[in-house]
Amino acid sequence: IYGVTTDPFWDIVFAQARQAADDLGITLRLDRLEPQPSEEIWHAKMASKMINLCNEGVDGLFVTIPSENVVRAIEECQNLNVPVMSVNTGAELSQKLGLIHHISQLEYTAGFGAGKRLIENGMSEGFCLNPEAGNTALVERCKGFEDALAENSIPYLGMISVPLDNEALFTANVEQAIDREGDWDGLGVLTVGASVVSALLSLKERRPALLIGTFDTPDALFQGLEEGTILFGIDQNPFVQGYMPVWLLTLLSHTKQHLQNNFIETGPSYVDESPSEALQVCVLNDFEVCPRPVQENKNQLTRIRPLGLALAAVSLALSTFFGVWVWLNMNRSCIKKSQPLFLGMICIGTFLMASTIIPLGIDDSIVSPDACSRACMAAPWIFSIGFTTAFTALFCKIWRINILMTSSQSFRRVNVTAMDVMKPFAILLTLNVIFLLVWTIVDPMEWERNITSSSADSRSSYGICVLGRSGVSTAMISCLLVVGFCVIVLANYQAYKARRISVEFSESKYVAMCMVVMLQVLLIGIPLSVLVSEDPVPRYFVMTAIIFILTMSLLLLIFVPKMHFVNDEKKGRRKTNSTNVSGLRIVKNPHHQSGLSKKQVNDLENVFKEAGMHIGDTTELETLLTKAGINIQKTTPSIFSAAWMSLQYAGSVVGRSQYNEPEEEEKELSLR
User: Fold this and answer.
1) In 5-80, where do the E strands start and end?
2) Which of 216, 259, 262, 220 is nearest to 239 (CA)?
3) Among 73, 451, 506, 603, fewest CB within 10 Å belongs to which?
4) What is the pLDDT of residues 642-658, one digit of tens each?
5) How far is CA 136 from each of CA 14, 181, 611, rounded to the nearest angstrom?
């Protein structure tokens, strides 16, 4: 028993009481009153209904206690052994009467909290609107509000009584009480009843600077939160206040059992943003059309992310280790011949490629969707620059060797520094940066969550980085792929040209092995990543595996052999496959083993003499070549080509002047 028919708050309370009765299969009678001339008449009619129902022999009664005018009626019901519970209003009176339970929010606490929130939003003066001045619960709310203002030295303009259902009279009462012009800047108001929110919003149109907070969650609250005209609402959970007393009274009637605590707290809960549309529909329909909780599988990377980060850590650690190792051994012959600049670039490139695993593992389980979108664009930036750096370094490194080889075969002396062959790297890196900038600025990728399946009880979705809405993204990705493909082709081409050069100077053999590994990984990994594109966990695993295998194969195949060479050099037991002949380093080729003709010996002797070197006779030359372990295939070309090509057949010839060691500078030979 309570509530006038014009107060929307009680619609929810009574609707849930009916629902509880239907669920339990009991008979429930609900009484609401029409608006009365005064609160005294209203409360007197409430008391009369209570006495009549208890005399009829009901099994239980739940009521509100708005004032002491209904206390006598409750005491009479207790004398008739009718269990009585109170809801919403009258916590103190309920305790004095010794009722089984009182179900409501902490009214004073709710009002105090509302005052603090309005102060935080800039309130410099405040007042409280009460549509039921005699209601003890509403008075407690205003009292809490007043104390919050006093604690912060904010002037309190008092509690203003307003009508429940007369907007014109409401506005007149408030305007008269405040008695000031302007937009009411710094003035804050707390309304302790949901029935006056609409009238209060109309007043705000006249006084736009008015700060508003309200109790309960009427329809006007959600619109006000969305538009910013209301700062917050206070939800005291009318669902529980209507549903729970029916259950508790039914349990008590059938089993004589009840909860031990007298006060059952249902609030306050502060609502400062508009709920979802589905929840709004639920509340506005008295919780009859509420969405059921849905079990959602978001396919997030929470479980597999540690594995990806562990693999990234291994690659990052090895890249750092080999980079430091190159720096510490820069003066070693093997490292100097292998060109430290390019070895360092390979370490930097693999470090960046491995770092790509970090943004690939970011999703909405750890950051916001906006941060996920930024991670989407970070991944191609890091990987593209790292890939270009590492594989362009291989290309430039081997290209320099090939330039030196070509010059030595043409009897030309050239001085090719590392910086001379850095132009391709600068060009390719610049192209990458341009393409990535255009992509990022004009049409960046965005992170979104897509639903794959949905039912009444479950839903499956996945988060993914999607291309921009225009064709710019596709065009820029295509350009980046072309640049990457060019890098791979150039590196393979130079490695093929340098296939006969000593491993001391070029990693052509190991570069070829890297390319084979990369080709196999891409041929398997790219189709797999396409197949699992809508399943984030397998996709993350495949992409992480691709990056890990690429970086590890490059690091291990390039640097492990060099560590072996340096280790042998330190121990003084390095074996070489080459020898010095009159200032030339000749590298043996064990695959060509056939006799040296007399004509070929004479041709070689003439070449050495033209170069300024003297060899006594053919026997001395044969002895020299024999000591070098060189056997030349028999051919009969011209003097120039036969002599030099014979050395090529024996292996690879490198002008010694290109890799002078300090102590051997005096042996430098100029070839014309």
Assistant:
1) 61-63
2) 216
3) 451
4) 454 444 434 333 333 33
5) 21, 32, 116
